[in-house]
Write a structure and sequence with these properties.
Elements (H helix, E strand, L loop, with lengths): L1 H35 L7 H5 L5 E3 L5 E3 L10 E3 L4 H7 L13 E7 L7 E7 L7 H9 L9 E9 L3 H13 L3 E9 L6 H12 L3 E4 L2 H11 L13 H16 L1
Parallel strand pairs: 6-7, 7-8
Antiparallel strand pairs: 1-2, 3-5, 4-5, 4-6
Bound molecules: zinc ion.
Zinc ion binds next to helix 5.
Length: 252
Amino acid sequence: MADKSQTLIKKKERKDKEAAELTKDVKEMKNEREKTGNDGEVSSAAAGVNNGAVANSQDGDFQVEPVEIPPFEIITGDRIDPLVFKFQFKNVEYSSGRNKTFLCYLVDKGNTVDGLLRGYLEDEHTGPHAEEAFYTQCLPHYDPAIKYTVTWYVSSSPCSACAAKIAEMLKARKNLKLSIFAARLFEWEEAEVQAGLRALHASGCKLRVMKPLDFTYTWDTFVENEEQPLNLWEDCKENYEYYHEKLANILQ
Ligand SMILES: [Zn+2]
């Protein structure tokens, strides 16, 4: 019994930390928008930040209000809004309030007419996830005669259901090589999430946590960066090392 209440307290503490982090990040994003004068239409991705309806009050408290869940939608695109990227890909430790997965992809089909595909997908966690949408939307026609080299840069690692689906798919499609680079590990403390990551690893998927250099590369390749370099956040390397160690322990 004592264990159970300990777990509950831990979960509550984590939730509080997550909400505080999220509030801080939303504030930072708003400030940055004001600074850059980019107060135009808030993109759907930025709006997604408010899905948990985190509201700041005067004294810095936060409240989470119940909101209606919007109809499920997968958004596809060429390049991500820079502020949205900085928010969604930030490799913070407490981040479940982000409510979304962003998946940037590169598909190399060798010497074919449409040899190289590039783009991104974003989901709401209320319907099929970005990982699944990738196969239905980006690779609907699979040709067993072609060798596919697929690389994903995802804002967080797959949930257990997606990990299982991807592992199955990789077993069935022997000529498709997949590498996944994740900014954060999604609910890595959960046993079933860990099992999913191990199954993915066992199916031949290359699984890594994004290094500082990977954030720079993703920024250069998938973001409307207007030729501006990415200024990495202060604790980027430290957070990478944190997640890298967690993943190594899970996969060993
Ligand atoms: Zn998923």
